[in-house]
Amino acid sequence: MLFTLFHNIDKNMIGYMTDLIMSDFKISHTEMGLVFTGALIISVVFQPLWGYLFDKYARNKLIALASLIWGFTTWLSILPRDFLSFLAARTSTGVDDLCYPGINSMLSDYFKPQERGKAYGIVSSAVFLGTLLGGIVALIVGRAMGWRTAYYLTGATGIVMALLIYLFVKEPFRGISEPEMEGLETISTYKLSLEKFRSGLKRKTVIFLWLQNFFGIFPWQILTFWMFKYLLDIRMFSESYATILMTTWIGIMFLGNILGGVIGDLLFKYWKKGRVAFCCIIAFLSGIIIYIAISASDPLCFIILACIASLLLPMAGPNVTATFYDVLEPEVRSVVPSIGGIFSNMGGAFAPLVAGVLADIYGLSFAIMVPSMVTWFICSIFFLLATLYVEKDMEALRRVMRERAMLERQKSKHEDSH
């Protein structure tokens, strides 16, 4: 959780310092969108490599490596004095950005299926807390001492985190938390194979979750990179007031993320389709609330609607992650989501650039409202389709785990008899 927290402080500060960087390099919205998109494209390119490595080798050591890369690439991005060099350096910070499937895979071995929604809600809430604290660091350090100083501090944090993770984070047995393995202290290591990889890719639930991720990540990237500037330029709020609002909304998102995981676990307990059905409803409501909020002309009405949106928008996230691990074997829980991430994150990679172009043509309100609304409506359709297959895919995993549990207990009895 600490890695996720500090990594997202570093990752999301740029949204609060966009105007400083644009002024420093004298660049347009489109050029700034290219800075965002460059790092996102690199993160997508490296995501399947991280997924393969996490399913092949010790996950705790790879998380430490990702943290080390984060620290050094962040330091690299503070050196350039011209835009093209800054663009290249900032693009390199995307190398470690999508290592999270490996972290989520490891978490799935710490928590039982019926507990994972809440667990992912708590851990992924660090994303929102990191965004919130990133705004505070950007305001206190970035605006007072310069954006380069802010990145110098967060880069140092990445290097320190790498050392702490390497020394203290332990690697669990893959699949040990599955209900069929209850009572077993150790289990065999099941290796990533081409057969299991292909099997995971064919799960219809996985395919529909990938498709919704492609569209679902789009509005999040737009809001992350452009919302603060929208508050300054369109709503005409002061920097301090805009920061207070962003901090408040992100704090509400922190709570919404955890609440969404808790609700998802409760629904899953009584109805196996519950998590996915809940995601369908949340995605549809998200499209409606973002349209109403951005359209509101009254400042107070806008703020209240944005607070409601902040509670709703993150509720699906932990349930999507938990559902992936409800249908995938332990040895493909990094690489399969990562391969899908090439497709799904490509939408998010171009989102800031597309929004920047739309802002230059139609205005920032249009660039935030319309793409966000449309993509969340599309997500609700794919969630609805996933509900048709999720129970079947869960049972396929349970059969595999029952067979493995039987073999593990036979192996244990054989070893005890000798």
Descriptive labels:
17 helices, globular, Growth Hormone, Chain: A, 81% helix, 418 residues, mainly alpha
Task: Report what the structure shows.
This protein is mainly alpha-helical and 418 residues long. It has one domain (2-172, 199-417): MFS general substrate transporter like domains (Growth Hormone, Chain: A, Up-down Bundle). Helices cover 81% and strands 0% of the residues. The chain has 17 helices and no strands. The chain has helices at residues 2-16, 18-25, 29-56, 59-76, 83-92, 100-108, 116-145, 147-168, 194-202, 204-233, 239-270, 274-295, 299-312, 317-327, 335-362, 364-386, 390-417. The longest helix has 32 residues, at 239-270. The model has no long low-confidence stretch (mean pLDDT 90).
Quick rundown:
This protein is mainly alpha-helical and 418 residues long. Helix content is 81%, strand content 0%.
* Name of the CATH first level: Mainly Alpha
CATH architecture grouping:
Up-down Bundle
Q: Helix- and strand-based class?
A: mainly alpha
Globally, the shape reads: globular
For this structure, the CATH topology is: Growth Hormone, Chain: A
How many domains would you count in the coordinates? 1
How many strand segments? 0
Unreliable spans = none
Q: Give the amount of beta strand, in percent.
A: under 5%
Radius of gyration computed on alpha carbons? 22 Å
Instruction: Compute the number of helices.
Output: 17
Query: Distance between the terminal alpha carbons, to the nearest Å?
Result: 42 Å
Task: Please trace the helix and strand order, writing H or E for each element.
Answer: HHHHHHHHHHHHHHHHH
CATH superfamily: MFS general substrate transporter like domains
pLDDT averaged residue by residue: 90
Q: Major sheet: size, sense and barrel closure? A: none
Helix content: over 70%
